[in-house]
Design a protein that fits this description.
Blueprint (H helix, E strand, L loop, with lengths): L4 H14 L7 H33 L2 H9 L6 H12 L8 H9 L4 H13 L2 H5 L1 H5 L1 H25 L7 H4 L4 H7 L7 H33 L5 H8 L6 H9 L6 H13 L4 H13 L2 H7 L5 H25 L1
Helix pairs in contact: 1-2, 2-5, 2-12, 4-6, 4-9, 5-6, 6-9, 6-16, 9-18, 12-17, 14-16, 15-16, 16-18
Length: 326
Protein backbone atom coordinates (compact mmCIF):
# COMPACT_ATOMS: atom_id res chain seq x y z
CA UNK A 1 0.00 0.00 0.00
CA UNK A 2 1.38 3.41 -1.02
CA UNK A 3 0.72 5.77 1.91
CA UNK A 4 1.54 8.74 -0.31
CA UNK A 5 -0.97 7.85 -3.02
CA UNK A 6 -3.45 10.59 -1.97
CA UNK A 7 -0.67 13.14 -2.45
CA UNK A 8 0.02 11.77 -5.94
CA UNK A 9 -3.69 12.00 -6.76
CA UNK A 10 -3.72 15.63 -5.60
CA UNK A 11 -0.56 16.40 -7.61
CA UNK A 12 -2.20 14.87 -10.69
CA UNK A 13 -5.30 16.96 -10.04
CA UNK A 14 -3.28 20.19 -9.80
CA UNK A 15 -1.07 19.56 -12.82
CA UNK A 16 -3.43 17.85 -15.23
CA UNK A 17 -6.90 19.06 -14.23
CA UNK A 18 -6.61 22.50 -12.66
CA UNK A 19 -3.67 23.68 -14.79
CA UNK A 20 -4.70 21.49 -17.75
CA UNK A 21 -1.11 20.49 -18.58
CA UNK A 22 -0.31 17.61 -20.89
CA UNK A 23 0.67 14.45 -18.99
CA UNK A 24 3.36 13.70 -21.58
CA UNK A 25 4.85 17.20 -21.58
CA UNK A 26 7.99 18.26 -19.77
CA UNK A 27 6.13 21.08 -17.97
CA UNK A 28 3.31 18.80 -16.85
CA UNK A 29 5.77 16.25 -15.46
CA UNK A 30 7.82 18.95 -13.71
CA UNK A 31 4.78 20.59 -12.05
CA UNK A 32 3.41 17.22 -10.97
CA UNK A 33 6.79 16.26 -9.52
CA UNK A 34 7.11 19.59 -7.67
CA UNK A 35 3.65 19.46 -6.07
CA UNK A 36 4.00 15.82 -5.02
CA UNK A 37 7.50 16.07 -3.53
CA UNK A 38 6.90 19.36 -1.69
CA UNK A 39 3.78 17.90 -0.08
CA UNK A 40 5.41 14.57 0.72
CA UNK A 41 8.60 15.97 2.23
CA UNK A 42 6.72 18.75 4.02
CA UNK A 43 4.34 16.21 5.57
CA UNK A 44 7.26 14.03 6.62
CA UNK A 45 8.94 17.04 8.21
CA UNK A 46 5.86 17.92 10.27
CA UNK A 47 5.10 14.35 11.39
CA UNK A 48 8.68 13.29 12.13
CA UNK A 49 9.60 16.51 13.93
CA UNK A 50 6.42 16.24 16.05
CA UNK A 51 7.25 12.70 17.15
CA UNK A 52 10.88 13.62 17.71
CA UNK A 53 9.69 16.42 19.99
CA UNK A 54 7.80 13.80 22.02
CA UNK A 55 10.88 11.55 21.99
CA UNK A 56 13.15 14.34 23.23
CA UNK A 57 10.73 15.10 26.07
CA UNK A 58 10.14 11.58 27.41
CA UNK A 59 13.20 9.52 26.56
CA UNK A 60 16.48 9.74 28.51
CA UNK A 61 18.47 10.93 25.49
CA UNK A 62 21.61 11.53 27.54
CA UNK A 63 21.69 7.84 28.50
CA UNK A 64 21.01 6.72 24.93
CA UNK A 65 23.73 9.00 23.63
CA UNK A 66 26.21 7.69 26.21
CA UNK A 67 25.44 4.09 25.35
CA UNK A 68 25.95 4.66 21.64
CA UNK A 69 29.03 6.85 22.07
CA UNK A 70 30.89 4.37 24.29
CA UNK A 71 31.00 1.92 21.35
CA UNK A 72 29.66 -1.05 23.27
CA UNK A 73 27.70 -2.11 20.21
CA UNK A 74 30.71 -3.13 18.07
CA UNK A 75 29.20 -1.65 14.95
CA UNK A 76 25.66 -2.93 15.52
CA UNK A 77 24.38 0.63 15.93
CA UNK A 78 25.57 1.40 12.39
CA UNK A 79 24.01 -1.82 11.14
CA UNK A 80 20.67 -0.96 12.78
CA UNK A 81 20.76 2.52 11.21
CA UNK A 82 21.62 1.10 7.77
CA UNK A 83 18.86 -1.52 7.97
CA UNK A 84 16.39 1.17 9.03
CA UNK A 85 17.38 3.02 5.89
CA UNK A 86 16.65 -0.08 3.82
CA UNK A 87 13.12 -0.55 5.12
CA UNK A 88 12.09 3.12 4.98
CA UNK A 89 10.55 4.01 1.58
CA UNK A 90 12.32 7.35 1.22
CA UNK A 91 14.25 8.99 -1.60
CA UNK A 92 17.37 11.06 -0.90
CA UNK A 93 15.38 14.19 0.05
CA UNK A 94 12.59 12.41 1.91
CA UNK A 95 15.07 10.73 4.26
CA UNK A 96 16.40 14.08 5.48
CA UNK A 97 13.57 14.81 7.98
CA UNK A 98 14.30 11.59 9.85
CA UNK A 99 18.03 12.33 9.65
CA UNK A 100 17.38 15.73 11.26
CA UNK A 101 15.22 14.06 13.88
CA UNK A 102 18.02 11.65 14.77
CA UNK A 103 20.50 14.51 15.13
CA UNK A 104 18.06 16.50 17.24
CA UNK A 105 17.51 13.48 19.46
CA UNK A 106 21.24 13.30 20.19
CA UNK A 107 22.09 10.16 18.16
CA UNK A 108 25.80 10.19 17.15
CA UNK A 109 26.57 11.77 13.80
CA UNK A 110 28.19 8.69 12.27
CA UNK A 111 25.14 6.54 13.02
CA UNK A 112 22.78 9.09 11.50
CA UNK A 113 24.94 9.23 8.36
CA UNK A 114 24.75 5.45 8.00
CA UNK A 115 20.98 5.90 7.77
CA UNK A 116 21.23 8.89 5.42
CA UNK A 117 23.39 6.92 2.98
CA UNK A 118 21.45 3.66 3.07
CA UNK A 119 17.93 5.10 2.90
CA UNK A 120 18.04 6.06 -0.79
CA UNK A 121 20.92 3.74 -1.74
CA UNK A 122 19.33 0.44 -0.63
CA UNK A 123 15.62 0.99 -1.04
CA UNK A 124 12.33 -0.67 -1.76
CA UNK A 125 13.05 -1.05 -5.49
CA UNK A 126 16.19 -3.05 -4.74
CA UNK A 127 14.05 -5.42 -2.69
CA UNK A 128 11.06 -6.07 -4.95
CA UNK A 129 12.04 -4.87 -8.45
CA UNK A 130 15.59 -6.18 -8.69
CA UNK A 131 14.71 -9.89 -8.26
CA UNK A 132 12.33 -9.80 -11.21
CA UNK A 133 14.63 -7.75 -13.45
CA UNK A 134 18.13 -8.91 -12.57
CA UNK A 135 17.75 -12.06 -10.47
CA UNK A 136 18.37 -13.03 -6.86
CA UNK A 137 22.18 -12.96 -7.10
CA UNK A 138 22.29 -9.31 -8.19
CA UNK A 139 19.67 -8.35 -5.60
CA UNK A 140 21.53 -9.92 -2.66
CA UNK A 141 24.91 -8.58 -3.77
CA UNK A 142 23.58 -5.07 -4.33
CA UNK A 143 21.91 -4.93 -0.91
CA UNK A 144 24.95 -6.33 0.92
CA UNK A 145 27.34 -3.89 -0.76
CA UNK A 146 24.93 -0.98 -0.18
CA UNK A 147 24.63 -1.76 3.53
CA UNK A 148 28.41 -2.18 3.81
CA UNK A 149 29.02 1.18 2.12
CA UNK A 150 26.53 2.83 4.49
CA UNK A 151 28.12 1.32 7.60
CA UNK A 152 31.70 2.12 6.54
CA UNK A 153 30.68 5.65 5.54
CA UNK A 154 29.07 6.22 8.93
CA UNK A 155 32.11 4.85 10.73
CA UNK A 156 34.42 7.12 8.75
CA UNK A 157 32.30 10.15 9.63
CA UNK A 158 32.56 9.14 13.30
CA UNK A 159 36.34 8.67 13.16
CA UNK A 160 36.90 12.07 11.56
CA UNK A 161 35.11 13.85 14.45
CA UNK A 162 33.33 16.38 12.26
CA UNK A 163 30.47 17.19 14.65
CA UNK A 164 31.63 20.83 14.65
CA UNK A 165 30.31 21.19 11.11
CA UNK A 166 26.72 20.44 12.16
CA UNK A 167 24.66 23.61 12.64
CA UNK A 168 23.82 23.13 16.29
CA UNK A 169 21.47 26.10 16.44
CA UNK A 170 18.95 24.14 14.37
CA UNK A 171 19.25 21.04 16.54
CA UNK A 172 19.02 22.53 20.00
CA UNK A 173 16.46 20.93 22.28
CA UNK A 174 15.32 21.01 25.88
CA UNK A 175 15.04 18.11 28.26
CA UNK A 176 11.85 17.32 30.16
CA UNK A 177 13.35 18.80 33.32
CA UNK A 178 14.19 22.09 31.56
CA UNK A 179 10.69 22.36 30.10
CA UNK A 180 9.01 21.73 33.43
CA UNK A 181 11.27 24.29 35.12
CA UNK A 182 10.03 26.91 32.67
CA UNK A 183 6.47 26.06 33.78
CA UNK A 184 7.15 26.47 37.48
CA UNK A 185 8.57 23.00 38.16
CA UNK A 186 5.29 21.17 37.57
CA UNK A 187 4.32 18.53 35.04
CA UNK A 188 2.49 19.96 32.05
CA UNK A 189 -1.17 19.02 31.49
CA UNK A 190 -1.80 16.92 28.38
CA UNK A 191 -3.31 19.80 26.42
CA UNK A 192 -0.32 22.05 27.04
CA UNK A 193 2.06 19.18 26.30
CA UNK A 194 0.50 18.64 22.86
CA UNK A 195 0.83 22.35 22.11
CA UNK A 196 4.46 22.32 23.29
CA UNK A 197 5.29 19.31 21.09
CA UNK A 198 3.73 21.04 18.09
CA UNK A 199 5.66 24.29 18.64
CA UNK A 200 8.92 22.43 19.28
CA UNK A 201 8.56 20.35 16.12
CA UNK A 202 7.49 23.29 13.98
CA UNK A 203 10.59 25.27 14.99
CA UNK A 204 12.76 22.95 12.91
CA UNK A 205 10.12 22.47 10.21
CA UNK A 206 9.81 26.21 9.54
CA UNK A 207 13.56 26.65 9.23
CA UNK A 208 14.06 23.72 6.85
CA UNK A 209 10.92 23.89 4.69
CA UNK A 210 11.98 26.87 2.51
CA UNK A 211 15.03 24.84 1.52
CA UNK A 212 12.76 21.90 0.72
CA UNK A 213 10.77 24.09 -1.69
CA UNK A 214 13.93 25.43 -3.29
CA UNK A 215 15.58 22.03 -3.56
CA UNK A 216 12.52 20.29 -4.97
CA UNK A 217 12.05 23.18 -7.39
CA UNK A 218 15.52 22.53 -8.79
CA UNK A 219 14.74 18.82 -8.88
CA UNK A 220 11.52 19.49 -10.79
CA UNK A 221 13.38 21.44 -13.46
CA UNK A 222 15.72 18.53 -14.15
CA UNK A 223 13.22 15.75 -13.44
CA UNK A 224 12.88 13.40 -16.35
CA UNK A 225 15.83 14.93 -18.14
CA UNK A 226 17.87 11.81 -18.85
CA UNK A 227 20.14 12.25 -21.89
CA UNK A 228 19.43 8.73 -23.11
CA UNK A 229 21.44 8.79 -26.33
CA UNK A 230 24.43 10.41 -24.63
CA UNK A 231 24.28 7.94 -21.74
CA UNK A 232 23.99 4.93 -24.05
CA UNK A 233 26.82 6.10 -26.29
CA UNK A 234 29.43 6.65 -23.60
CA UNK A 235 28.44 4.20 -20.87
CA UNK A 236 28.36 1.16 -23.13
CA UNK A 237 32.16 1.37 -23.36
CA UNK A 238 33.79 -1.36 -21.30
CA UNK A 239 36.56 0.85 -19.93
CA UNK A 240 37.65 1.92 -16.46
CA UNK A 241 36.28 5.45 -16.83
CA UNK A 242 32.72 4.31 -17.65
CA UNK A 243 31.78 3.90 -13.95
CA UNK A 244 32.98 7.39 -12.87
CA UNK A 245 31.29 8.85 -15.95
CA UNK A 246 28.02 7.08 -15.08
CA UNK A 247 28.21 8.51 -11.56
CA UNK A 248 28.88 11.97 -12.99
CA UNK A 249 25.92 11.68 -15.39
CA UNK A 250 23.56 10.56 -12.63
CA UNK A 251 24.60 12.98 -9.88
CA UNK A 252 22.80 16.14 -11.10
CA UNK A 253 19.55 14.27 -11.80
CA UNK A 254 16.85 13.67 -9.22
CA UNK A 255 14.27 10.88 -9.26
CA UNK A 256 13.08 8.05 -7.06
CA UNK A 257 14.37 4.54 -7.58
CA UNK A 258 11.11 3.15 -8.97
CA UNK A 259 11.26 5.51 -11.94
CA UNK A 260 14.99 4.99 -12.58
CA UNK A 261 15.17 1.18 -12.41
CA UNK A 262 13.40 0.75 -15.79
CA UNK A 263 15.91 3.21 -17.30
CA UNK A 264 18.71 1.12 -15.85
CA UNK A 265 17.19 -2.06 -17.28
CA UNK A 266 16.97 -0.40 -20.71
CA UNK A 267 20.64 0.60 -20.50
CA UNK A 268 21.65 -2.98 -19.66
CA UNK A 269 19.63 -4.32 -22.61
CA UNK A 270 21.44 -1.84 -24.88
CA UNK A 271 24.83 -3.23 -23.85
CA UNK A 272 25.80 -1.04 -20.88
CA UNK A 273 27.64 -3.20 -18.29
CA UNK A 274 25.52 -3.93 -15.22
CA UNK A 275 27.92 -2.25 -12.78
CA UNK A 276 28.05 0.90 -14.91
CA UNK A 277 24.25 1.02 -15.14
CA UNK A 278 24.01 0.47 -11.38
CA UNK A 279 26.40 3.37 -10.76
CA UNK A 280 24.20 5.63 -12.89
CA UNK A 281 20.98 4.56 -11.14
CA UNK A 282 22.49 4.78 -7.67
CA UNK A 283 23.88 8.27 -8.28
CA UNK A 284 20.46 9.47 -9.47
CA UNK A 285 18.61 8.25 -6.35
CA UNK A 286 21.31 8.86 -3.73
CA UNK A 287 22.93 12.23 -4.47
CA UNK A 288 21.27 15.26 -6.01
CA UNK A 289 21.21 19.05 -6.07
CA UNK A 290 17.90 19.20 -4.15
CA UNK A 291 19.34 17.02 -1.40
CA UNK A 292 22.42 19.26 -1.17
CA UNK A 293 20.23 22.37 -0.90
CA UNK A 294 18.25 20.92 2.01
CA UNK A 295 21.25 19.43 3.82
CA UNK A 296 23.08 22.76 3.57
CA UNK A 297 20.58 24.08 6.11
CA UNK A 298 21.72 21.62 8.78
CA UNK A 299 25.44 21.23 8.03
CA UNK A 300 28.36 23.29 6.80
CA UNK A 301 29.87 22.81 3.36
CA UNK A 302 32.86 20.84 4.73
CA UNK A 303 30.61 18.09 6.09
CA UNK A 304 28.36 18.24 3.03
CA UNK A 305 31.37 17.75 0.75
CA UNK A 306 32.57 14.86 2.91
CA UNK A 307 29.16 13.17 2.74
CA UNK A 308 28.94 13.46 -1.04
CA UNK A 309 32.57 12.37 -1.42
CA UNK A 310 32.03 9.20 0.63
CA UNK A 311 28.81 8.41 -1.22
CA UNK A 312 30.34 8.95 -4.68
CA UNK A 313 33.31 6.72 -3.86
CA UNK A 314 30.95 4.05 -2.50
CA UNK A 315 28.85 4.18 -5.68
CA UNK A 316 31.91 3.77 -7.89
CA UNK A 317 33.23 0.88 -5.79
CA UNK A 318 29.85 -0.82 -6.17
CA UNK A 319 29.93 -0.30 -9.93
CA UNK A 320 33.44 -1.74 -10.28
CA UNK A 321 32.59 -4.77 -8.15
CA UNK A 322 29.57 -5.61 -10.29
CA UNK A 323 31.52 -5.15 -13.51
CA UNK A 324 34.27 -7.47 -12.25
CA UNK A 325 32.11 -10.13 -10.61
CA UNK A 326 29.25 -10.34 -13.14
Amino acid sequence: MDIFKPLQIFADLVAYNWLNLDRQSYLGSAVNFFVYDVLKIGLLLVVINYFMAITRYYFPMEKVRNILTKRRWFGLDYLFAAVLGVITPFCSCSSIPLFIGFLGAGIPLGVTFAFLISSPLVNESSLYLFPAMFGAKVTVLYNLIGIAVSILGGMLIHKLRVEKYVKKELLRFKSRKQVEEEYGGIALPLKELLVYFWKDGMTITKEVFPYVVLGVGIGALIHGFVPAHLVEQYLAAKTWWAVPLATLFGSPLYANSVSVVPVMEALVLKGVPLGTALAFMTAVVTISFPQAMILKKVMRWQLLALFFGITVVGIMIMGYIFNIVL
